[in-house]
Sequence to fold (418 residues):
Amino acid sequence: MNAALLKLLRRLVQKGTLAVIFSSGKKVVLGDGTGKPATIRITDAEAERAILYDPGLKFGEMYMDGRVVVEEGDIFDVLSIIKSNGVEKAATFANSIVALWHVLRQQVKSRLPVNRNRYNVAHHYDLDGKLFNLFLDEDWQYSCAYFHPPGISLDEAQRAKKRHIAAKLLLEPGQKVLEVGSGWGGMAMYLAESSGVEVTGITLSEEQLKVSRERAARRGLSDRVRFELQDYRTMQGRQFDRIVSVGMFEHVGIGNYGNFFRKMKELLKPDGVMLLHSIGQIYKPWATNPWIEKYIFPGGYIPALSEVLPPVENSRLLVKDIEILPMHYAWTLRAWRERFVARRDEAVKLYDERFFRMWEFYLAASETAFLYDKHFIFQIQLSPSLRTVPVSRDYIEAKERELLEFEKTRRRLELVAV
Fold:
């Protein structure tokens, strides 16, 4: 048994009930006996040393490799116990040095002139589309849903998200809209159908581009919704009435915020409106969790608002509205995780057991980040103009009611057609 790891775990787990079976066979129960219990088994001494030395990276790796095995509860239960106690309690001099190295490495990478955007996007989004079909909603919205009112289904909450964003964009028929990071095309198609606008969606994922074009063609929207394999940084000679970006800003990188907002201002007409939807956190993180950065979102970074607003101000874009959505992504991730785990056999068949554990860990760790690390979603509405956006927020709710009626009418027509 690794005595140093046991000492760390005793210091960390003060609340809850976590049993740890070490490679020696010794079982130790940690915590105060409250809450839902969980049990993990560490299969070998080398795994114990790795977790002690670099817990931020190695705990997830050991779980992926089957060298940390959850024998009671699931990995979400284990991570919940750890996060609810405060992971900072696991710091030692040695693993703090390793954590600092991760921070420095990511800070340097984010400022290198080498363009790795295409690689970073492909690493995650060019996976087999069947994988995402296991857990996403019917429209393949791979970003935070909007559970308003609370308790609605994932499909309803994703429609509410699109409705909420469309309302804030103040769309008028015939306007030209740019979507930066267009995913599988659902948002672009919704805006075109609900508001009569023309949408250009740009992505760096060849798989998403293919699927988006096919979906738009099937819905007869190819003349109003166009998708391009395009980096926003190299767009030239075009301006748009509206710009929307949902779940893409996390991939921009801390060293590129100034360039991002300057380019958005260049692409936006003087009386235009932009809506930026992104994950944020309450403090400057300096770096992404090393396991997430290595296996899930290379080059990703989740900022504090204090890191976002200065480059916005420097671009001379005006902040018209900021909304914080504190729990909606936790509820979204829970729905995704439950759907994904329920279809474990299909996920394993697509890839393998290790891949399944990697994605289960990713979804569980992300959910606990919103529950315990105080992550949130922010929506920032921007414009170069002082007068484009109304002076009160009443228009948002009024437009949402109008869009909801559009959705109901469309669904009735679809049922009749069937």
Notes: The chain is about 50% helix and 15% strand.
